[in-house]
Specification:
It is found in: Cytoplasm. Its main location: cytoplasm. It comes from Chlorobaculum parvum (strain DSM 263 / NCIMB 8327) (Chlorobium vibrioforme subsp. thiosulfatophilum). Its EC number is 3.6.1.1. With 177 residues, the protein is of the alpha+beta class. The protein has one domain: Inorganic pyrophosphatase (Inorganic Pyrophosphatase, Alpha-Beta Complex), CATH 3.90.80. It is 20% helix and 32% strand. The chain has 3 helices and 9 strands. Strands 1-4-5-8-6 form a 5-stranded mixed barrel. A two-stranded antiparallel sheet has the order 2-3. It is globular. The relative contact order is 0.19.
């Protein structure tokens, strides 16, 4: 049996407050990696067409299933770029509600639990207006030169993020268990 981090890494004992996040893309990267669902390997999806860089570390939460039929996405805020396929304890602080190709594609927003520089951030409002504008701008623009559109609806608080997370765990259980 192949090891697949989506199916074989535990979500974490403190879920939904703190989860294990698997990083696919390091902060400040132009490379779009994603988990190959069948093999569990990290594959190069593409180099971004636009001249933008991922503003934060990006990955997925194991044993979850989003509305887009992929593992639930997570943005992990840290002062550092975290290498792909690293497992990070991530404290859930909010969610960016997004529509991609007509489907819900929520991005859970979290902070790296073991990074003291972000230890005082407990809810999405603690990040400040500019951070949210930058994150929204990235996700609205990174596919623009591919003639694809993404709609960022809004940012919501930690309670909403945790509800979405628990729904994605339930969806995963009904699909794979």
């Amino acid at each position: 049996m192949n090891f697949n981090p989506w199916h074989h890494v535990e979500i974490g004992e403190e879920c939904p407050n703190v989860v294990n996040a698997i990083i696919e893309i390091a902060k400040d990267s132009k490379t779009k990696y994603e988990l190959d669902k069948k093999t569990g390997m990290l594959k190069l999806d593409r180099v971004l067409f636009s001249s933008v860089l991922y503003p934060e570390n990006y990955g997925f939460i194991p044993k979850t299933l989003g509305e887009d039929h992929d593992p639930l996405d997570i943005v992990v805020v840290s002062q550092c770029s975290i290498v792909p396929m690293c497992m990070v304890k991530a404290r859930v602080i909010g969610v960016m509600r997004m529509i991609d190709h007509g489907e819900g594609d929520d991005k859970i927003i979290a902070v790296a639990e073991d990074d003291m520089s972000v230890s005082g951030i407990n809810d999405i409002g603690d990040l400040g207006k500019h951070f949210k504008m930058e994150l929204q701008h990235f996700f609205e623009e990174y596919k623009a030169l591919e003639n694809k559109t993404v709609l960022v609806e809004n940012f919501q608080d930690a309670a909403t993020a945790k509800r979405i997370l628990l729904e994605s765990i339930d969806r995963y259980s009904k699909t794979f268990v």
